Amino acid sequence: MPTTLDVTKIGPVDVAVIAFETDQLNGQVGPALAELQANGTVRIIDLAFVVKDENGSIAIIEIEDSEVNEAFGQIAQDEHFDLLGEDEIREIADALTPGQGALVVVWENTWAAKLSTAIRDSGGFVVAMERVPLVDVLRAIAALEAEEV
User: Fold this and answer.
1) Contact (CB, 8 A) for 101 and 19
2) Other Cβ atoms within 10 Å of 111 Cβ, number
3) pLDDT truncated to tens, each residue of the chain (149 aa)?
4) What is the pTM of this model?
5) Which of 12, 84, 114, 127 is the 20 to 30 A CA-CA neighbour of 43?
6) Any idea where the domains of the chain sit in the sequence?
């Protein structure tokens, strides 16, 4: 294991699978991820791309490939840990519909590392955590606004 990954101080780690119609995967996501990493919000641990063409054939695209390097090459890869195996990436690709691609990114939530360490050092552990989907948040806000009228 690389010495730059201190498991006693690591923050929560998430895996995100972000699907796109292949013609919609543009260069906007790469700089946004790079900015989050540069300002210390997250640390990109692993990154992969997969595409399922209209015929159902699957291609795994590496960060070094020219088609994604321009948009995602600025994300520091010196601490790349290859947590995503080819089997996991193929499983993700199988779930895509033909004509879709996906960015699979593993990041450490460095913003939460200090709290995570304090919880572990106190003998605590997270027993549940759930991300509320944006659509649910928007519905709740709309309902609150409707009540105010």
Assistant:
1) yes
2) 14
3) 344 667 778 899 999 999 998 766 677 888 899 899 999 999 988 888 899 999 999 988 877 666 677 777 777 555 556 778 889 999 999 999 999 999 999 999 999 999 999 999 999 998 998 889 899 999 999 999 998 87
4) 0.79
5) 127
6) 13-124
